[in-house]
Design goal:
By secondary structure, this protein is an alpha/beta fold. The chain has 12 helices and 10 strands. Bound molecules: hexanoyl-coenzyme A.
Length: 260
């Protein structure tokens, strides 16, 4: 039986790519516990579905996501935040092993910007705005917004965004490395889907190892990262697809990948 969701929409997959839309338009896709749980659950189902190789995540035309749901947030005191299960849900989203591309139009604010940064690649419409406005509410980012933002855009811009709450445009996000590409808003999802389909055609084991190793760069020093890379490189030498890829090149034919 197909699982049904209240706060996200799973479109019919196209060429092994699953498009997921955040679906709380009445609250500008504010991230409730239910929405995050449904997203994590959907991604976990996709992780073990061999028919889906990559995911595109999008929000609305004017707002990708307006952050944590402030009605839910208001109900949590210090002990409530301490015992909150949301960090574990965010971790489930982060642990999705297949490529995840965020297609962002409009505002990606607070937890919305943090959700976009959980993706491996961000494609933004030229009207997109990224911000961590928690400071205006007496808070700070709480789902990786300090740690991931500073790694993505560097110290000075991350400090400016988090301390002042000012937003950056899609163009600034592109210039700073937060975003991979900027499109006209009508093309954001289409471009993200095309890119995801390109990745979906690559040998799945190599894609998975590449994502894993690239993300390790955020967690390790260079020497440990290089060792991790070499191990993954070595593991892939035992895969059918790696041998097929090299042989097909040498025999001047198209490779036939099996995902083994
Ligand atoms: C709950 C929200 C919401 C939010 C908007 N809404 N953002 N509800 N949580 N984060 C609701 C409004 O209350 C309103 O409901 C409806 O959505 C439309 O919002 P408006 O403000 O009227 O829309 P607009 O004028 O178009 O402005 C859009 C906006 C603005 C710029 C995105 O809504 C905004 O600034 N939102 C809050 C952004 C923010 O501060 N995010 C950080 C949250 S803290 P009604 O019922 O009145 O129609 C955070 C911490 C993360 O994310 C920690 C870890 C997860």
């Amino acid at each position: 039986m197909t699982q049904s969701y209240q706060t996200i929409i799973l479109e019919p997959p196209v060429a092994a790519v699953q498009l997921i839309r955040l679906n709380r338009p009445q609250a500008h896709n504010a991230l409730t516990s239910l929405l995050l749980t449904e997203l994590a659950t959907a991604l976990e189902a996709i992780a073990s579905n061999d028919d889906i190789a990559a995911v595109v995540l999008t929000g609305g035309d004017k707002v990708f996501a307006a952050g944590a749901d402030l009605k839910e947030m208001a109900a949590l005191d210090m002990v409530g935040v301490l015992n909150d299960t949301r960090p574990a849900i965010w971790r489930r989203i982060y642990q999705f092993p297949k490529p995840l591309i965020a297609a962002v139009n409009g505002y990606a604010l607070g937890g919305g910007c943090e959700l976009a940064m959980h993706a491996d690649i961000i494609i933004a419409g030229d009207s997109a705005q990224f911000g961590q406005p928690e400071i205006n509410l007496g808070m700070i980012p709480g789902a990786g917004g300090t740690q991931r933002l500073i790694r993505a855009v560097g110290k000075s811009l991350a400090m400016k965004m988090v301390l002042s709450g000012e937003f950056i445009s899609a163009l600034e996000a592109k210039q700073s490395g937060l975003v991979a590409e900027v499109t006209v808003p009508e093309m954001t999802i289409e471009r993200a889907m095309k890119l995801a389909q390109t990745i979906a055609q690559k040998p799945a084991l190599a894609v998975r190892q590449a994502k894993d190793v690239l993300l390790k760069a955020f967690e390790t020093d260079l020497e440990a990262g290089l060792q991790y890379e070499r191990k993954a490189f070595t593991v892939l030498a035992g895969s059918d697809d790696r041998n097929e890829g090299i042989n097909a090149f040498l025999e001047k034919r198209k490779p036939k990948y099996t995902g083994r």
